[in-house]
Amino acid sequence: CRGTWGGAFDAFGSQVAEEGPLLVIALGPQPEPLAGLPVPPNAICMPSVPQVDLLRAGIDLFLTHGGQNSFTESMSCGTPVVVCPGFGDQIVNSRKAVSLSVGLKVDRPDPDVGDEAEAATAYRAACCQAMREVDADASFTAGARRIAE
């Protein structure tokens, strides 16, 4: 999760709260989830957020693990996605996002391969790049809205 949040902060974080988009981050229940990760002033980080309400309000991009509920909710609201799957339905839904042209997927690094710090840095950069690409390319939003109809 830290790699995805770091990627979001790199892609859209700003030095001033009033500049840049508002980033709303659901941290989950883990203790000290942001340990050592600087949070930009335009980000709000909480253990949980009203996900469906935010999606219905019309957010620009949804960064998700791609579980069935999250994926279905984002598609029903016409929100493009960046999916960082871990296992199970998340992997299937990440492939659906790409095949439906509603988003991109970023595979998590394999913990058994190579240098762990290098893999974490590459993952964060890949998340940042995918978010920037989905945000900049209106075809992802158009695809998600088409699915919502």
TrEMBL record:
Pfam families: UDPGT. InterPro entries: UDP-glycosyltransferase, UDP_glucos_trans. The lineage of its organism: Eukaryota, Sar, Alveolata, Ciliophora, Intramacronucleata. Coiled coil: none annotated. This is Uncharacterized protein. One of its GO terms (molecular function) is UDP-glycosyltransferase activity. Gene3D superfamilies: Glycogen Phosphorylase B. It comes from the Eukaryota. The keyword Hydrolase does not apply. Keywords: Glycosyltransferase, Transferase.
